[in-house]
Amino acid sequence: MICAPVFGYLGDRYNRKLLMAFGVFLWSLTTFVGSYMNDYYLFLFFRSLVGVGEASYSTIAPTIISDMFVKDLRSKMLALFYFAIPVGSGLGYIIGSGTARILGTWHWGLRVTPLLGMLAVLMILVFMEEPERGQCEGFSHLTTTSWSEDIMLLTRNQSFMLSTAGFTCVAFVTGSLAWWGPNIMWQGLKMQKGYENVEPNSVALNFGIIAMAAGLIGVPLGSYLSQRLKVRYPKADPLICAGGLLISAPLLFLGLALADKCYYPVLVLIFIGQIALNLNWSIVADILLYVVSPNRRSTAEAFQILISHSFGDAGSPYLIGVISEMLKNFFKKSNIPLLLASVTSLSNNSLQIADVKDNKNNFQSLQYALFISIIVEVLGAIFFFFAAHHIVKDKELAETETPGWPSYTPIVN
């Protein structure tokens, strides 16, 4: 998160191919080495270096795609790139739980992925070409501005700032669900008859499959809707993002509310809710690329990563955990309000507050804390609605380079 602006600066000025290869190599190496660390602080240090490597790749890769493809084709390529996030997260649950079960230790989960990372480094160095910045959009030899001027211009770009705020809300929800989703599902399931001895790994596996499938469907679906609607409705992109969040919010709320009542209907609700949430990924990336000039796109990517992680998925698991602990202590000291109980009860008599057990208390405290994510989703939709008001103007400014921006010589076909 902190190193993203550094790679954003470098990515707008130096060879992006080598920067990406360095990032993938660093995170693969430190992932492998970190798995052998028995000291907590050494382990934490190497896990932090993993993040440094990821900052390089995630900041620069979308800008290379933007210089290789334009318009609908770029949207399709971004969808192909960004669906790796939910799919990779889902595979993490599957491979992580499977490896831990087969080999009896979580360490080997960290020792499998570096092999794929080294393959990626080789493919970047051998097969990837470094495109000229803005080449597919008819720009040639764009002038680079200072980093401070880049930041100043980006903060004045209302579409970029509002879409970043909306995406931060998406990251908040994604982070809280990725961390606490399997836990709340497991706690709710073991309170149901016949599932008292269910294993956490089996629940994590099912949750991972759902997350991966939702990504496979949601990310390309968002790109498809964007390509179809943007032709007639220039403001379609932020409106699709807002609509996805407003659809996802009630579905995830019902999934959380019914997590201790039924299992398979809850899986369906969370699955559809995550599909709607995943509509955002490729669209937000595309918005950034067409409302920001090519010579500062890496900086814009870095800025968006910094903000979305700082106020999104970096803090949401901890915040949800803190609130859950506060509620847990409150529930132990006082009766659970009937009003709150009725939210998750199918029957007014289903909760006998005086007889609440520890597992019920743990479940409900986490459940109510996760309801915050639903409020954040609605807030994100509001940000995207405001972004729709500015999107056309900011896109035109990025395409024409308004006075005060660096000059360039367009290639006339």
TrEMBL record:
GO molecular function per UniProt: transmembrane transporter activity
SUPFAM superfamilies: MFS general substrate transporter
One Pfam family matching this protein: MFS_1
Membrane topology: Multi-pass membrane protein
Main location, first listed in the record: membrane
Keyword Membrane in annotation: yes
Source organism, top-level taxon: Eukaryota
Family that this chain belongs to: Belongs to the major facilitator superfamily. Spinster (TC 2.A.1.49) family.
This protein's name: Major facilitator superfamily (MFS) profile domain-containing protein
